[in-house]
Amino acid sequence: MKTLVTLALLTLICYLRHSSGTAAVDAVTKDGCCPGVLQRKIPKGFVKDIVNIPNNCHPKAMVFTTVCDEKYCIDADWTWAQIRQEEFNTSKSDFNIHKCAKKGQNV
Ligand SMILES: *[C@@H]1O[C@H](CO)[C@@H](O)[C@H](O)[C@H]1NC(C)=O
Q: What global pTM score does this model have?
């Protein structure tokens, strides 16, 4: 019975965490993979870093780190993301030019 209550509580906590405002941030899991991917156009000036996750991960993703140190798992098959990564690789000049205004800002 106690186990059941604990389980119910854990489920509730998980549910609450996922439905909160941070749901858009798909944090990278322990093995460096992404639990899910987004197609979100983060303006270059807010992007500090773009890295690929390991090849064995599913779904395929790139992790975009914003100037606020938020990590977004972006769909690696998405052309927009591929173009951004190519630009990032060749010239970082338009990237990372903004300051983080506040933690958790939506970019
Ligand atoms: C960008 O550089 C990373 C790291 O070297 C590499 O894995 C990736 O394939 C490159 N992407 C593009 C589109 O050039």
A: 0.73
